[in-house]
Design goal:
Blueprint lengths: L1 E10 L2 E11 L3 E6 L6 H8 L7 E6 L2 E2 H4 L1 H6 E4 L11 H11 L6 H10 L15 H14 L4 E5 L7 H16 L3 E5 L10 E6 L3
Parallel strand pairs: 3-8, 3-9, 6-7, 7-8
Antiparallel strand pairs: 1-2, 1-4, 4-5
Bound molecules: adenosine-5'-triphosphate (ATP).
Adenosine-5'-triphosphate binds next to helix 1.
Protein name: Heme ABC transporter ATP-binding protein
GO molecular function: ATP binding
Keywords: ATP-binding, Cytochrome c-type biogenesis, Membrane, Nucleotide-binding, Translocase, Transport
């Protein structure tokens, strides 16, 4: 269970939101909505412990995330605006780095299979700077194929993806939610998010 309790976030002297209460249980997708600048990314960063709110608390399984530290980060997969991939490394090497940082040692063939699942057959061992924007995004999304983290926080994950990749990502999200995981995401795209239980949070309305 992820809980947001009386959260208040500001940027400079601008109040983005206050007294925000949200509870997200296992098997739920929370779609955070709102106009540009309403604070969606700020909220997602706060959920990951990357932004300190003015007031309130975020709890994971009943404990404030500030007290959990690494224990929380092992349970969390954050997919931010930047792909976080290194252009000089191949897709396989990038995936090796991110999974190792997540504390997993996976066989080479598992990494290749993840890249194949995400539609990158034939591009696995090219430096990722040679890939298109959508292909780079797919390399980053291959982490989701391998992730064991119960909580996924995804900021605009559908941007730059073609129709096939959007469908694939929807499937990965649906599988994660069906397995009892939690997904918190933002998207401005008109993507049918029908996996499991879907909750919606509107900011700035
Ligand atoms: N580093 C920063 N310093 C100061 N203000 C910032 C900073 N980052 C964001 N802001 C401001 O905070 C507000 C909320 O930004 P945020 O990125 O959370 O919005 P958003 O809802 O995700 O927007 P979008 O839909 O455009 O991605 C914006 O007005 C933005 O200008």
């Amino acid at each position: 269970m992820l809980e947001v309790v009386q959260l208040e976030c500001r940027r400079g002297d601008r109040l983005l939101f206050s007294a925000l209460d949200v509870e997200v249980g296992g098997g739920t997708l929370l779609h955070v909505r709102g106009r540009n600048g309403s604070g969606k990314t700020t909220l997602l960063r706060a959920l990951c412990g990357l932004f300190t709110p003015e007031r309130g608390e975020i709890r994971w399984r009943g404990t404030p995330i500030a007290e959990l530290g690494d224990e929380y980060h092992r349970d969390l997969l954050y997919f931010g605006h930047l792909n976080g991939i290194k252009g000089d490394l191949t897709g396989v090497e990038n995936l090796r780095v991110t999974t190792t940082l997540d504390g997993e040692r996976l066989d080479e063939q598992v990494l290749w299979a993840a890249l194949a699942r995400i539609g990158l057959q034939g591009f696995e061992d090219l430096p990722t700077r040679m890939l298109s924007q959508g292909q780079k995004k797919r390399v980053a999304l291959a982490r989701l194929v391998l992730s064991r983290a119960p909580l996924w926080v995804l900021d605009e994950p559908f941007t730059a993806l073609d129709t096939a990749a959007v469908a694939l990502l929807e499937t990965l999200i649906a599988e994660h939610v069906a397995g009892g995981g939690i997904v918190v995401l933002t998207t401005h795209q008109d993507v049918p998010l029908t996996s499991g239980q879907v909750a919606r949070l509107d900011l700035g309305s």
